[in-house]
Amino acid sequence: MIDVSSLYLLKNESFAELAKLSSLSDLDQFELYWMGRKGKLTTLLRSVSELSIEDKKTIGKFINDYKVEFTALILQKKTLLKNVSLEQKLSQEIFDTTLPGTIFPRGHQHPLSQVIAELVRIFHSFGFVVADGPEMESEFYNFEALNIPPNHPARDMQDTFYIEQTGKQPSLPSLGHLTSHEDPSLLRTHTSPVQVRIMQKYPPPISIIVPGRVYRHEAMDATHSCMFHQVEGLLVDKNVSFADLKGTLTRFAQLFFEKDVKTRFRPSYFPFTEPSAEMDISCLICSGTGCRVCKQTGWVELLGSGMVNPKVFEEVRLDPDQYSGFAFGIGIERLAIFKYGVDDLRLFCENDLRFLKQF
Length: 359
Ligand code: PHE
Known about the structure:
The chain folds into two domains: 4-92; 111-356, Bira Bifunctional Protein, Domain 2 (BirA Bifunctional Protein, domain 2). It is α+β, with helices and mostly antiparallel strands. The chain has helices spanning 4-20, 24-35, 40-47, 53-92, 111-125, 139-142, 193-201, 242-257, 310-315, 332-340, 353-356, and strands spanning 129-130, 136-137, 186-187, 206-215, 227-237, 263-270, 273-282, 299-308, 324-331. The chain is built from eleven helices and nine strands. The strands form two sheets. It has a seven-stranded mixed β-sheet, with helices on both faces. The termini are far apart. Phenylalanine (PHE) binds next to strand 8 and strand 9.
């Protein structure tokens, strides 16, 4: 039988005991003793449900109020004791402000990322925006739509990594409805498929650059890799001419290499551009007088380019009589090699800090 006067006594006793505590560990024990799962007050609280309705109003209320007050006091005490122990600790510790600090080594971007960032910055200033596309591509986007017919050598098994057809293709959620054109069957061998994807989706004027990874079935050596980076460029509008292509790419080379580099355009062939040209720059090592790097020619090849082939325009339902455009593809590793004088492509993917720290 619980009565109010013995409850009073109990309450006073517990409050007095609490006031006397002087360490956090004692407080923990105290809390457990009173408020733990089998604690004294917890047991009391449990017994409230067995009281008569009358008693619930008086004794029950007393116990509940007691608990609320008690909990608050314990918390207050805890904060107090914590502060005391912190102050004690601080007054005992000696802080030596003359000790050297811990120096955290600061990392930086990978040289290839730096090249991409610089390239994006330059083309951004020309009004180009960045676009991207999937690395797993369909034959349609990687070849067909770019006017690369089925028997073209670029499709050779030696160049292209084909993806095993399991019947269940990974879906490309961002591309919406999957058609057979969308079914990825290979790793893209260049960034040019993104040209087609963008032209399908957006009306001209278009001016984009597309940095990204590409894959080719090649043995690794100092100048070849099965995975490397390209940046694709595409500009489509009315009255775009070959002079625009030359001007844009020449200015890019000068800004990128921070030198008054000269450029020359040699006729070339790409199925998706007509006419096509390869752009050379005057050798950065010898400035064009002839050295080992440029094989005494004074020129090094930098990129592939050309005017968008009308066949590609037709594929994306743009009228070639109304629109024209130019496109280019630059090897990012190649840019980095020229800019930093690196002579082995493999260094870029070995993650050797001795190499990376130099940039
Ligand atoms: N896609 C070509 C390649 O990988 C480069 C290129 C892009 C050429 C755009 C012309 C225009 O070799």
